C-alpha cells in the first residue's frame, strides 16, 4: 500500500459508532452525513421529531439507515438516557458529536432569566453531561474514543444580544480543554469545532437583516457564509485516527473571519 493511500485510510471511520446530537437539520445533519460517508454507523439525535430526513439522505448515499433517537436536552436527566439508548443500538460508542444547541436573542438589559437558563442548560450543562456519560463508557471499554464539541466564534468574541449563548460557548471551549487534560491518557481525544457564520436556522434572523447580512459577508475573506457541508471534513478529521495526537484543540471553520 502506498504512503498516500495509507494516510488517507487514517480518515476512514469504518466500524466506528457515532452519536450526533441535533442531527435533524443544519450543522448536525451535515456532520452526520460526513461521518456516515467516511464509514461510521451513525445514531441521530433530535429534540422532538426523529431526524428522519437526515436518516433517509444517509441511507440513500450509503445504503445504511441510521437509528434515530429523541431527547429534550433542556431536561437535566435526558443526557444519561440518551447516551444509554445510543450505546444500546450497537453495544458501544466510539464518537460523540455534541452539536445540539439553541440561541435566544435579546438585549442584555432585557434578557430574561428563562432564556439565560434554557440556553446554558442545553448549550453547556448538557454538553458536559453527554461528555461525562460518553467518557465513562469510553474509559470503561478501554478502547479510546473521540468527543467533538461544537463551539462558536462567540467562544472567542462577545457577540451582541446573545449573552447566554456567548457565555455557554465560551464555557464549551474551556470544558473541551479540561476534559482533554483528564482523558487524553485514556486515548480519548476531546476537541471542538468553532463554526463561523453558517446558513442555518440559528442565523435566520441575521440573514433576514439585509444590512447586517451584507456587513458580515463583506468581512468574511472567503466572501460567503458557510454551509453544513463545510463542517463535514473537520468533523471527520477530529473523529478519525488522523487526529489521534490532537487534544483540547478548537478548530475554527469560519472562512477566515477570525484572521481578519
Question: SSE layout and pairings?
Answer:
Blueprint: H1 3-9, E1 17-20, H2 26-37, E2 41-46, H3 52-62, E3 67-70, H4 78-90, E4 95-98, H5 113-141, E5 145-150, H6 163-183, E6 188-195, H7 204-208, H8 210-219, H9 232-239, E7 250-253
Parallel strand pairs: 1-2, 1-4, 2-3, 4-5, 5-6, 6-7
Keywords, separated by commas or semicolons:
single chain, 260 residues, alpha/beta, Rossmann fold, seven-stranded parallel β-sheet, 9 helices, 45% helix, 14% strand, globular
**How many strands, what sense, and barrel or not for the largest sheet?**
7 strands, parallel
Q: What is the count of helical runs?
A: 9
The helix content, as a percent range, equals 40-55%
> How do the strands of the widest beta sheet line up side by side?
3-2-1-4-5-6-7
Amino acid at each position: 500500500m502506498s504512503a498516500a493511500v495509507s494516510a488517507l485510510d487514517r480518515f476512514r471511520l469504518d466500524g466506528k459508532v457515532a452519536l450526533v446530537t441535533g442531527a435533524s437539520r443544519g450543522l448536525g445533519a451535515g456532520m452526520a452525513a460526513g461521518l456516515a460517508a467516511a464509514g461510521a454507523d451513525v445514531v441521530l439525535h433530535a429534540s422532538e421529531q426523529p431526524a428522519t430526513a437526515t436518516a433517509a439522505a444517509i441511507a440513500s448515499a450509503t445504503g445504511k439507515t441510521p437509528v434515530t433517537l429523541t431527547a429534550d436536552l433542556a431536561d437535566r436527566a435526558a443526557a444519561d438516557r440518551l447516551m444509554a439508548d445510543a450505546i444500546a443500538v450497537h453495544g458501544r460508542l466510539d464518537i460523540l458529536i455534541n452539536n445540539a444547541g439553541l440561541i435566544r436573542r435579546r438585549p442584555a438589559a432585557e434578557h430574561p432569566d428563562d432564556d439565560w437558563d434554557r440556553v446554558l442548560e442545553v448549550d453547556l450543562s448538557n454538553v458536559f453531561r453527554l461528555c461525562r456519560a460518553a467518557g465513562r463508557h469510553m474509559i470503561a471499554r478501554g478502547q479510546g474514543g473521540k468527543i467533538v464539541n461544537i463551539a462558536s466564534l462567540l467562544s472567542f468574541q462577545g457577540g451582541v444580544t446573545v449573552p447566554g449563548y456567548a457565555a455557554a460557548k465560551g464555557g464549551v471551549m474551556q470544558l473541551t480543554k479540561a476534559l482533554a487534560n483528564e482523558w487524553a491518557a485514556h486515548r480519548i481525544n476531546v476537541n471542538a469545532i468553532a463554526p463561523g457564520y453558517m446558513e442555518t436556522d440559528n442565523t435566520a434572523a441575521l440573514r433576514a437583516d439585509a444590512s447586517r447580512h451584507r456587513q458580515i459577508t463583506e468581512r468574511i475573506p472567503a466572501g460567503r457564509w458557510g454551509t453544513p457541508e463545510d463542517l463535514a471534513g473537520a468533523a471527520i478529521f477530529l473523529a478519525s485516527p488522523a487526529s489521534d495526537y490532537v487534544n483540547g484543540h478548537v478548530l475554527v471553520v469560519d472562512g477566515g473571519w477570525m484572521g481578519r
